[in-house]
């Protein structure tokens, strides 16, 4: 909606040229004809039907004389003039010198529109030349009525007999000719958008009412003449635009032979393979995948059934023999009860006949954790002090803590191609203007759901009232009062380029119109031609920019008014100009909320609004929108952690057995790990982002709570007859390797984000792990657009997880020692100074005498049933005023964002071919840039290009051409001479312009002999380009470049023959969905790349939203690569630590399934793939490790057959995984469904809930089945009895 540039190209006079155009058709004025008995016409060769001018209408339009006189031989001067314009007219003529001058004056306004296609121009001129001056005029013109003007008979109506062949040839040669300044076709101006030659002739021949453009009398175009009339239709030969010798460009004549060879396949969507199955259609790829899935599932179940049948058969054959030989159950051979842990057998080897054969890495880790556990248990104070000291040292970096709030810095990487292109565009041409917008719409009918038309007298009056309010806004900036007129964009230097329906009234409520509604309806159809409909800033106003909710060109059915205020933008965001604008924008929003909203709603209309700074302001407000939700999340998690860490609640001992203080300490440790991570990166100069506290709960959910529960439960499982230091040591030996494996896997998974080429993802990893996702997810959808700041964060997340792990195995283990000492000393939780006398023994039963907990019993029951087998406004607060605005933008806008094709280093010298490789007029290359853009606009559904481009180069070449003889002119002293309808040639007042004494000696800049193949030399180009860019458009010359192209060409350094930067403007098609923005950017880049390679020139596309959507071009590639790296890193860590390819492969498979299933959930819930969801997927690969590593590790160190080992792994580690991982995450995530910000609901509540449930089912249901069927062999091996030794001694 390039409101500024798109209309700046035409002034009030421009409007006139259209009306004059129809005066062109009016040129029939030039025809004289007689139909009464006194002036009987003679229809024969050499006779006229109209000759000379006999009067004028009251509005000044001239009227011809109806004289059927013989054609007259012109003098030599008139003959040469007629030949120059009408080469087909020779010999006698039916026009006087005055008539020809009128003809010439009128057609000169049409020439700039049509000169790009000589065939069209020639046909168009022939029509009016024959009508005005043909010596055989009476053969095809019949005057049907006359009227008296000041006692003179004048023509009042005629029949013009013309063959359909001529009409068809004329229309076909002109229908595709472009008018670049307005990004549309010339036929829209000179033919009212006619769809065929009959509609065009009807438009030309319509009698105009007074003071309106059009013919002064009616012209009826007829294909056949009356019998016995002696007449015959005019049938001058027409020129085809396909005639290569006439040089019509491909943009003006797509059917030209030189254009048809250009392949257009790149614009068409690739063919999709579809198969029909009954009434259903299915893509070949989808069907193939479905078949593959069914085959794999069938093979899996078949193998499982075969395995189970063979196992039962073998068991049946072996049972009698075993019973006879040993007299005992086969599951009871030298094996302790199933409740006993593998680690107990590891430590108490003298009471067992089995041991665990660990990998080298696990062996070292077990030895380390055994010795380390003893040392920590004996020195808890020292360990806790060192841990706290280390984290406090890292937190000192918070002194340099800074928050990055600039969207471009948050969302776009420094090496971003789109960011570089934006910087080039802003610095070499001009920054894109700011937009302030209001949308008023009718309310849909409750019965049929259809919105009524908004075009009523009352609603137009409402627009004037709203405009008065907006004009009255005064914003205080540094003591100065800023109003809209101080900051608005003024393409013609006087009036604001406001886009509103009331521009049809010149923004003047007192505009003289008998019926406002009728005037608006008239302007909607004649906005390009009626002077009374010209905007206050002197350019036509396209209805599609100010109306919405209509289809096609049915403007009267529009259900919305769209009011847009383009405001000047500054290159330096910190500059005073921008600050002034921001101050006014804040006042504008406040007035919209307080005054305009009630005013519009009182009229039973909906109202939405936005300013350029609205998104940033709403994000700042959003940062505090969910404080209560986050606090509740903390409290819920804290309460659950305290409950799950403690023993089964008993009223008599709850105040001793509870773990409230331990749980609170654990949560604080997780928080300080994040602070330490942020402090470290702040110290090295990495800026943070907003809303840190919003994401800390997710970090707690991801890693902190899980390991705390596993550690505490492991200690509780140890026999009470062991000393506390022995229990701590055994617990660390039991769960230390799996905790280490899970934490290292998470660290690597998050660290992968540091390599994602999106600042959002890098910042995310760095800043607290999961925390920065929140804020940045919010912004991505704003810019309908957007890239989330998550790139520096993956590193911080990785560091935060690493710190959290270190604190858990140091500070938290020390806190466990203190808490168990407190409990054994019968001291009250939270008040350890208070000691009670009640016994604690029954509440601290160890593994030897303690009954299995509820979760452990549930997991054992579940395991008995295990059989081998296989069982996308979102970022804003919901109450934001922008929610309704974005909905309305998607629903009502009928025009897409402006698209610029920027050309670097255009060599305009006469030796270079660059000019013909860019332009699209006569003699330009068929595959030139502008011709290719025009060709692409023919397939907007795939190219996303809506219109041909506005070309300063085409208009410049036309402006200097001899055919456009009223455009490029010079005084006798060589300086620029404007057209005759502009000062100083014409008075500045509104009176008619005649031949001025000032400009009577002005001459054309060039004759054909001065140009080489109609192209200027290097010196001529260099001299006249500044003239063109300063020339105002008007009726006599619509091609002036001032306003339309002021910022399209960089003149700095152009004297050396090279223009460093220039742009050609077109528009994208309306973009309503995120995928539309992505696809349009991809299509534009592919188009520019192809054309650049073809022309050997540097060309790139630019639109204001590209910078925010660049990340999505390769989002799938980025997501898949990072997921592969993350899962691969987890696999390598597992392989290194376990030295078991078998176990690592199973973990890899389960992780991949969880991630793939999570992506499936995203598809079902319509969650879009973006930086937030990519980060969530990468994190899921790390978090999901927790659901399977612990179970797999417990399974590998258990003894017995696979059924027993699965039961034992679920009965021991399954309970910790379920309570410490599944339920902990679940309670924290559930709170987020009450968030006021949709980004939390969609990307955290929905995705994390899905992750937790998928992790639970895969880790505690599917994984045990996999282990039962395909699990690795046990690491337990038979060993001989050894002498008695302490359970905390070295590993055997």
From TrEMBL:
<keyword id="KW-0472">Membrane</keyword>
<feature type="transmembrane region" description="Helical">
    <location>
        <begin position="1177"/>
        <end position="1195"/>
    </location>
</feature>
<protein>
    <submittedName>
        <fullName>Niemann-Pick C1 protein-like isoform X2</fullName>
    </submittedName>
</protein>
<dbReference type="InterPro" id="IPR000731">
    <property type="entry name" value="SSD"/>
</dbReference>
<keyword id="KW-0732">Signal</keyword>
<dbReference type="GO" id="GO:0030301">
    <property type="term" value="P:cholesterol transport"/>
</dbReference>
<dbReference type="InterPro" id="IPR053956">
    <property type="entry name" value="NPC1_MLD"/>
</dbReference>
<keyword id="KW-1207">Sterol metabolism</keyword>
<feature type="transmembrane region" description="Helical">
    <location>
        <begin position="695"/>
        <end position="715"/>
    </location>
</feature>
<feature type="transmembrane region" description="Helical">
    <location>
        <begin position="1215"/>
        <end position="1234"/>
    </location>
</feature>
<dbReference type="GO" id="GO:0032934">
    <property type="term" value="F:sterol binding"/>
</dbReference>
<dbReference type="GO" id="GO:0016020">
    <property type="term" value="C:membrane"/>
</dbReference>
<feature type="transmembrane region" description="Helical">
    <location>
        <begin position="763"/>
        <end position="784"/>
    </location>
</feature>
<keyword id="KW-0812">Transmembrane</keyword>
<feature type="transmembrane region" description="Helical">
    <location>
        <begin position="661"/>
        <end position="683"/>
    </location>
</feature>
<dbReference type="GO" id="GO:0008203">
    <property type="term" value="P:cholesterol metabolic process"/>
</dbReference>
<feature type="transmembrane region" description="Helical">
    <location>
        <begin position="623"/>
        <end position="641"/>
    </location>
</feature>
<dbReference type="Pfam" id="PF12349">
    <property type="entry name" value="Sterol-sensing"/>
</dbReference>
<dbReference type="GO" id="GO:0012505">
    <property type="term" value="C:endomembrane system"/>
</dbReference>
<feature type="transmembrane region" description="Helical">
    <location>
        <begin position="735"/>
        <end position="756"/>
    </location>
</feature>
<feature type="transmembrane region" description="Helical">
    <location>
        <begin position="1241"/>
        <end position="1263"/>
    </location>
</feature>
<keyword id="KW-0325">Glycoprotein</keyword>
<feature type="transmembrane region" description="Helical">
    <location>
        <begin position="1119"/>
        <end position="1138"/>
    </location>
</feature>
<feature type="domain" description="SSD">
    <location>
        <begin position="626"/>
        <end position="818"/>
    </location>
</feature>
<keyword id="KW-0753">Steroid metabolism</keyword>
<keyword id="KW-0445">Lipid transport</keyword>
<feature type="transmembrane region" description="Helical">
    <location>
        <begin position="287"/>
        <end position="306"/>
    </location>
</feature>
<feature type="transmembrane region" description="Helical">
    <location>
        <begin position="381"/>
        <end position="399"/>
    </location>
</feature>
<dbReference type="InterPro" id="IPR032190">
    <property type="entry name" value="NPC1_N"/>
</dbReference>
<keyword id="KW-1015">Disulfide bond</keyword>
<dbReference type="Pfam" id="PF22314">
    <property type="entry name" value="NPC1_MLD"/>
</dbReference>
<dbReference type="Pfam" id="PF16414">
    <property type="entry name" value="NPC1_N"/>
</dbReference>
<keyword id="KW-0813">Transport</keyword>
<keyword id="KW-1133">Transmembrane helix</keyword>
<feature type="transmembrane region" description="Helical">
    <location>
        <begin position="796"/>
        <end position="818"/>
    </location>
</feature>
<feature type="signal peptide">
    <location>
        <begin position="1"/>
        <end position="32"/>
    </location>
</feature>
<keyword id="KW-0153">Cholesterol metabolism</keyword>
<dbReference type="InterPro" id="IPR053958">
    <property type="entry name" value="HMGCR/SNAP/NPC1-like_SSD"/>
</dbReference>
<comment type="similarity">
    <text>Belongs to the patched family.</text>
</comment>
<feature type="transmembrane region" description="Helical">
    <location>
        <begin position="1144"/>
        <end position="1165"/>
    </location>
</feature>
<keyword id="KW-0443">Lipid metabolism</keyword>
